[in-house]
Amino acid sequence: MPVINVDDLTDKDKAVMEVNQLKIEIKLERWLTSKCCEEIKEYIQAGVEEDTLVKGISEEKNPFKEKGTLCGARGAFWG
Amino acid sequence: MAAEKAEMDALKKECDGLRAQIEAARKAVNDTTMTAAANGVAPLGRVQLKLRKSLKGHLAKIYAMHWSEDSRQMVSASQDGKLLVWDTFTGNKLVAVPLKSAWVMSVAFAPSANLVASGGLDNICTVYNIKAASPKTLRELDAHTGYLSCCRFLSDSEILTASGDTTCVLWDLETGKQKMVYTNHIGDCMSLALSPDMNMFISGACDSLAKLWDLREGTCKQTFSGHTSDINAISFFPSGNAIVTGSDDCSCKMYDLRSDQEVTDYTDATLNAGVTSLALSNSGRLIFAGYDDFNCHIWDSLKGEKVGVLSGHDNRVSCTGVPADGMGVCTGSWDSFLKLWN
C-alpha cells in the first residue's frame, strides 16, 4: 500500500477529501455535554484517592527517592 | 479554467454547509462546560511536587522520552545521537543505543520492554532490540516522505507512526511493511496517542486539528477544531472517552468524544509560551503540560485552573510522561536533563 504523498494531491483532491470526511462526521450521534462531563467527573473522583500525584507519597514508599546517606557510597549495592 | 473554479466554489460551498450543520449539532447538545459541571468539586489547592532525581547523561537537547510499562525503565532520545534506557529507581543508565541519524524527534518503548523505536528528520522509524547483548537494529521502517514526529508500539509486531508528511501509518514489524495509512490531515502530524482499548488512536497536527481514527478500518471518525495553531501534544483521558491536546497557541484543551466537542480550555493570561508535551495523572485530575517557558505547568482538569508548576529546567521542556502506575512524572528538556517529580 503506497504512502499517499499529500504534495501530489491537487486543491480539488483536498476539497473532495474534506467534503467526504464531513459527510461521515455529520452522521455522528452526539451526547449532551452535561452527561459527558458528569461521567468524566465521576471517573476522576473514583480514582483520585489512589492518585499518587494528587495525594502524595510517603518517603519510604517513594520509588524515586534518593538513596539514604547511610548507604550512599554503596548505592549501587541496593540498585 | 472557469469550470475548475466553479467546481472548487461548489465544493467549498458544500464544505461550508456541512461544517455549519455539524456546528449546529454540537451546539444543540452543549448544555454545559466542564468547569460549570465541576462547580461542586472541592478545589485542589496548590499541588507541590518535589524534584526527586535529575538524570544526567545526554550531551545535547532531549527531544522525547517514553516510560516502559513496568513504570521503572524509561527511554530518552537526544540530538546527541543517542537513546538512553534508564532505571529511574537508581538513576542508572541500562542501555545506550547509538543512532544513525542524530536528528531524533520521537522515541517509544514497546509494552514488552524488548524493543525501542525512534525516528526524526531521517523520515525513518528504526526499531531496536535492546535485550540482545548489544542493541541490534531490528527494522528500518522507511516510507514516510516527511519527518517522523511520533511513534507508539501496539505490541512487538505492530507500531504506529505520525509524520510531517501529514499521514500516520500502522506497520507490521514482521514484514516491515505498511498495514494501513491514515490520510486526512492537511498539516504535519506532530503527535499521536493510542486509546486504552487499542481500537482507536488520536493524532494532532499543524493544521490545528485533532483527529480520532479507527485503527483497524483506517478511517477518520471525528475531527476536533478550536486550536489556532499547531497541536504538538495529545493524550487520551484515562477513561478513553475524552482527549487532551496542547498547542503552539499556548493553550491545552479537553475534547469529549461522545459530545464531539471541546469541554474545557486551559489558558492563562500570563502563559505566553507554546505547549510542547503533556501527560495526565492516573485519575485524570491533573494535566502536566510542558511549555516553551522552561516549565511544566500543572492544571486541574476539572476546574480548568493552574494548580502548580515544575520549575527547574534551564531550557524548553520538550517531553513529559507519567508511568503506568502513576507514581511520578518525568520531564525532559533541551537543557539535556530529565527530571523525576512526585
What does this protein look like?
The complex is a heterodimer of chains A (about 80) and B (about 350). By secondary structure, chain A is mainly α. Chain A has four helices and no strands. Chain B has about 350 residues and is mainly beta. Chain B has two helices and 28 strands. Chain B is globular and about 60 Å long. The relative contact order of chain B is 0.13. The mean pLDDT of chain B is about 95. Chains A and B meet through helix 1, helix 2, helix 3 and helix 4 of A and helix 1, helix 2, strand 13 and strand 17 of B. Chain A: It is a lipid-anchor. Chain A: Belongs to the G protein gamma family.
Low-confidence stretches of chain B: none
Unreliable stretches covering 5 or more consecutive residues of chain A: 69-79
Q: How many helix segments of chain A?
A: 4
Helix content range of chain A: 40-55%
Q: What share of the residues of chain A does DSSP label as strand, in percent?
A: under 5%
Question: How many H/I helices of chain B?
Answer: 2
The ordered string of helix (H) and strand (E) elements of chain A is: HHHH
Query: Most extensive interface: pair and counts?
Result: A-B, 56 and 81 residues
